[in-house]
Amino acid sequence: MEKTWRWFGKKDKITLPMLRQIGVEGIVTALYDIPAGEIWSPETISDLKKYIEDAGLKWSVVESLSVSEAIKYGGNNRDKLIDNYKISLANLGKAGIKTICYNFMPVIDWIRTELEYPLADGSYSLYYDNARFAYFDCMILKRENAEKDYPADVIEQVHALDKTITQEEKDQLIYSIIVKTQGFINGNIKEGDKNPVTLFKNLLDLYKGIDKDTLRENLKYFLMQIMPVCEEYGINMCIHPDDPPRQVLGLPRIVTNLEDIDWILKAVDNPHNGLTFCAGSLSAGIQNDVRELAAKFAPRVRFAHLRSTEIFPDGNFIEAGHLEGRGHLIELVRIFEKTNPALPMRVDHGRLMLDDGDKDYNPGYSFFGRMFALAQMDGVIATVKNEIATNCCNL
What we know:
Blueprint: E1 2-6, H1 16-21, E2 26-29, H2 42-54, E3 58-63, H3 69-73, H4 78-94, E4 99-102, E5 114-118, E6 124-128, H5 130-141, H6 152-162, H7 167-183, H8 196-205, H9 212-233, E7 236-239, H10 258-267, E8 273-278, H11 279-283, H12 290-297, E9 301-306, E10 308-311, E11 317-320, H13 329-339, E12 344-347, H14 367-394
Parallel strand pairs: 1-2, 1-12, 2-3, 3-4, 4-7, 7-8, 8-9, 9-12
Antiparallel strand pairs: 5-6, 6-11, 10-11
């Protein structure tokens, strides 16, 4: 597998020379300053590509060429936005960048309620607390009929929490769920925006009347429109699973399990319509066995995120160590090394550890935590390659 790293551009405090020193081979990045829906010009693509190559690395994966909300909910201007997307794809293809990771999650990307959950060893991880998320939904967002989406025991916890929660804790939930984790991903809401809750509710309103079937068809429409460009330039589109893979905030989610992924790949049965296999997102769904999913969909996996989660009996989950949890990363490496040994992969959501705490890295994207995880995965990959070579020699 190709060892890649998500890098947030020239302003990233983690520099390309640092990444070369720790064994990174390819860069996963995007033109983060360009809003969703606008065209990525050949000049801006070439400039960043040259910057990466001058550091002795290569631009392996785009993550992400963001899909505008209007494409997802089927707005009046979606065809214009899709045309812009196709131009950006063609410009990337001409530059030799062939792998595009994207998601089709309405409004909100990955969700965590706590960005620095303390662990016994002194490091910190990302954490999802179902009751606290329900509190945000029901008591802060005050979404209509939100309580119907949660079981009775969770609603009991919400009302109990309402008696003790402080304003600081409420502000922290808002910051964690819809500001900090979203600002650097899709830019819908960013730090410094006034009234983020109101802005967020306005975004949710765009999806009134949009159910799972409608969102599926909108994805199919988008993919059918862009496939000719992908075929012309050899570009692989890799859809990212929903994180967490469950319904949230009354929004439809369409990449949550085996049936969802199977539908997407069959609806547009083109080898350029592929999957980003995010073991962390998928393992956060109790319905998913990531080993089964990897074995079934390996021929259409074009990019992999190697991380793991652990689900607790109450439904809460935490980012687990890369050799632990429901991600079963050792088995996934075995599957992917046998089917596609050149598959680009990146370690994801490393723990906050050592002196990274004051660096203000994006949540989940600290340096030492990911470096530690990359070293673990590097060892796993080397071991699996040796297993495969030994087994071949013994045949």
